[in-house]
Amino acid sequence: MLTDLSTRHRCREVCEVTERFVLHYNQERPNLGRSCQNQPPRVAFPTLPVLPAVPETVDPDRWLQTIHGQAFPRRIGSDGCVDVDLEPYYIKQALAGQHVVLFVNAHEKLFEICHENVLIKQVPIKGLHGEELPFDRYVTLMKQEARSELRRVPIARRSFQQLRLWA
Fold first, then answer.
1. How many CA atoms does the CB half-sphere of 127 hold within 13 Å?
2. What is the pLDDT of residue 167?
3. CA nearest 113: which of 155, 142, 148, 84?
4. How far is CA 68 from CA 41, 106, 150, in A?
């Protein structure tokens, strides 16, 4: 019981110290940033703009619209595939070693694959979600993707270093 009281007391002290620091930081301490011109932030900006509300849903595939029409040249591997962001796309075994261009068709959510300026195939873009997500689920998804990216980068760097050792 004594521990609970002392823990609560320490928590209250931490809250009080933090509140005093925030007041000092925002209202008294000069800020050397250009926008504040050596004034405390609340003096330089007495009223802050109101931020827009967080959306209820988010389209996790909306980024695709920003690259609509972009071309990604690739060389077809011996297995008949090309890779885009570590995802393999099968093109055609007979074209191994040759070059193709993947054009992004955001409206249809697919790659239009051209060989020697001729459309030879259309393939769906992998890794899309296909639906809007509630905001909190979208944030959870972004956290998971960030964690997996952090794990992926050291592995890629390590395999590159191993290649250099043997070269």
1. 13
2. 46
3. 84
4. 41, 5, 27
Over residues 2-16, the pLDDT tens digits come to: 567 688 888 899 999
**Nearest-angstrom CA–CA distance, 95 and 114:** 12
* Residues 93, 79 contacting (CB under 8 angstroms): yes
Contact (CB, 8 A) for 81 and 96? no
Q: What amino acid is encoded at 39 in this protein?
A: Q
| Residue (of 156, 141, 167) closest to 63 by Cα position | 141
Convert the pLDDT of each residue in 75-103 to its tens digit: 999 999 999 988 999 999 999 999 999 99
Start-to-end CA span in the chain (Å): 65
Q: What is the pLDDT of residues 110-160, one digit of tens each?
A: 999 999 999 999 999 999 999 999 999 999 999 998 888 777 766 555 555
DSSP string, the chain: -HHHHHHHHHHHHHHHHHHHHHHHHHHTS---STTTTTS-HHHH-SSPPPPPPPPSEE-TTTHHHHTTT-EEEEE--TTSEEEETTEEEE--GGGTT-EEEEEEETTTTEEEEEETTEEEEEEEPTT---S-EEHHHHHHHHHHHHHHHHHHHHHHHHHHHHHHHH-
